[in-house]
Amino acid sequence: MAVGRYHRQEIFYPIGSEGQKKLQQGRVCIIGIGALGASVANMLAQAGVGYLRLIDRDIVELTNLQRQALFTEADVEQQLPKAEAAREHIAQMNSEIEIEAVIADVNPYNVEKFITDVDIVVDGLDNLETRYLLNEACDKHKIRYVYGGVVGSGGMMMNILPGETPCLECLLGPLPEEGSYDTCDTVGVISPITNIVASYEAAETMKLLLDSESVCRQAISMDAWDSYTEFFDVDKDPECPVCGKHQYTRLEHRQKNYTASLCGHDAYQITPEDDGTFDYDAVVTALEGEGEVKRNRFFTTFKNDEADLKLFPDGRAIINSVPSGDEAQKIFAKYIDR
Q1: 119-138 pLDDT tens trace
Q2: Which of 67, 105, 73, 72 is nearest to 89 (CA)?
Q3: Do 12 and 100 fall within a single domain?
Q4: Could you tell me if residue 70 is inside a domain?
């Protein structure tokens, strides 16, 4: 009798053949397909989780290869979006599961659409602002959220189960001001800690899909360089604006354009309101008369003496080599939103 793909996993007592069937019926959305998200996606695909939605706004770059294990130099050369590159590599590893790649920025306009048809949302993000938004959306829709974060050699992970556990804001407190905390831009990050945190995230996601009694209800803090792992309780704050009072200020906040500094880049991303009026082809045609334009199936690059940008079909643009968000907005207004 032939041994199946998941044989070693099925003979692991906490999973078994019935558990494997549950995994194959599971639906997971991973937001951020970088060092954490790509590793989690790979492990969940290997485990046979039946549906994976991979969401990322960025392109594979050379600096990613130091820690983002799914990607290759060929992905860099082809300038593949991370979500699509991950989908292609995972599909070659496991053709039995469904993988959806979404090339998008997660914001108040689209986050609910991305998460309301899945069982679990896994955090592979590199910025706190989007995490706090995701925390609100998951609480509002009672969707289980597996939080993970890394910086330097340290990392943290916690399961956020609406109605049962504290939420991200209980764990981290109010969103700190930009520039007041360490990021990968300021202190770097090493691959051992990303793999450790991603492994915890993948294991907890599998346990949640199985409704296992072993689901961790503590926060976990760890450091790969200083060699420690600590489990600690987090108190649920009854005055928490999210899980205590169910106030969703970030989710309900609407503005015409969202501007975000990209971690690890000298660049700003501008995401306009999706009102259905953006004409990608017309904008690209207009750009052709003002500088060097290169178009592929995922985005268009534009460059002249004043601007260096990538434009996506949904109207989102990454403005390179600008000192501030205000300067990025000026270029966006001149060349895209006109």
Answers
A1: 999 999 988 999 999 999 99
A2: 72
A3: yes
A4: yes
CB 30 within 8 A of CB 202: no
Catalytic positions are 184
Of 126-130, 249-253, 274-278, the least confident: 274-278
- Are residues 272 and 312 both part of a single domain? yes
Q: Tell me the pairing of strands 98-103 and 120-123.
A: unpaired
Percent of the chain with pLDDT over 90: 80
DSSP H or E segment with residue 303: strand 300-303
Q: Which amino acid is at 39?
A: S
Q: Are residues 179 and 261 in the same domain?
A: no
Residue 270 three-state SS: strand
**Strand pairing of 317-320 and 267-272?**
antiparallel
Strand order from edge to edge, sheet including 317-320: 257-261, 267-272, 317-320, 308-311, 300-303, 292-295
| CATH number, domain with residue 324 | 3.30.310
Do 171 and 276 lie in a common domain? no
Tokens in use for 268? 């700003």
